[in-house]
Design goal:
The protein is mainly alpha-helical. It is 57% helix and 8% strand. The protein starts with 6 loop residues before the first strand and ends in a 9-residue tail after the last helix. Pathway: Protein modification; protein ubiquitination. Pfam families: Skp1, Skp1_POZ.
Length: 156
C-alpha cells in the first residue's frame, strides 16, 4: 500500500490554510526546511502574507517540484509568463514572501519580472508605481540628471 503523501500546512495572515506537498516545500524553502529540521511541528503561520500570496507560493513550489527548476526556456517560459502576469503589488508581495521563506528561485524570478517591467519607465512613473516621494529639490534633481545622464537615457 502506498504511503500517504506528507503535507505541510501554511496559514496566511487571514487564517486561511494552504496545504503544500512537504517534499516541494522542503526543496524550495530554506526557512521551512530549517523549521522541520529543528523539530517544529504543526501548521506554519505566515502572519505577514495574505492568502493570495501564499497560494501563489504554493503554486510555484508545486510546479518546480513536479517540473524541475524554472529557467525561462521552452515550455516553461509560457508557464512563467502566465504565473507572473499580475500587478506590481502582487509581485512585491511575492518578493517579500520569497525573501522570508528563503526561496532564491522565486526571489530571482519575481525580481527579474519587476526589473523587466520598470526598466524603461521614467523616474516619475517608477516613483508613482512604488509610492516613493521625491525628496530632491528641482535643483538637486537637475544636478543628478546632469551628472548621470546615462541613467536616464532609456527613460525619455
Amino acid at each position: 500500500m502506498a504511503e500517504p503523501k506528507k503535507t505541510i500546512v501554511l496559514i496566511s495572515s487571514e487564517g486561511t490554510e494552504h496545504e503544500v506537498d512537504a517534499a516541494a516545500a522542503l526543496e524550495c524553502s530554506v526557512t521551512i526546511k530549517n523549521m522541520v529540521e529543528m523539530g517544529v511541528e504543526g501548521p506554519v503561520p505566515l502572519r505577514y502574507m495574505n492568502s493570495a500570496t501564499v497560494a501563489k507560493v504554493v503554486e510555484f513550489w508545486s510546479h518546480r517540484h513536479h517540473h524541475g527548476d524554472i529557467d525561462g526556456a521552452g515550455g516553461e517560459a509560457a508557464w512563467e509568463a502566465e504565473f507572473f502576469d499580475c500587478t506590481i503589488g502582487d509581485l512585491c508581495d511575492m518578493l517579500g514572501a520569497a525573501n522570508f521563506l528563503v526561496d532564491e528561485k522565486l526571489l530571482d524570478r519575481a525580481a527579474c519580472t519587476v526589473a523587466d517591467r520598470i526598466k524603461n519607465m521614467s523616474v516619475e512613473v517608477v516613483r508613482d508605481v512604488f509610492g516613493v516621494e521625491n525628496d530632491f529639490t528641482p535643483e538637486e534633481e537637475a544636478e543628478e540628471r546632469s551628472k548621470y545622464p546615462w541613467a536616464f537615457d532609456a527613460c525619455r
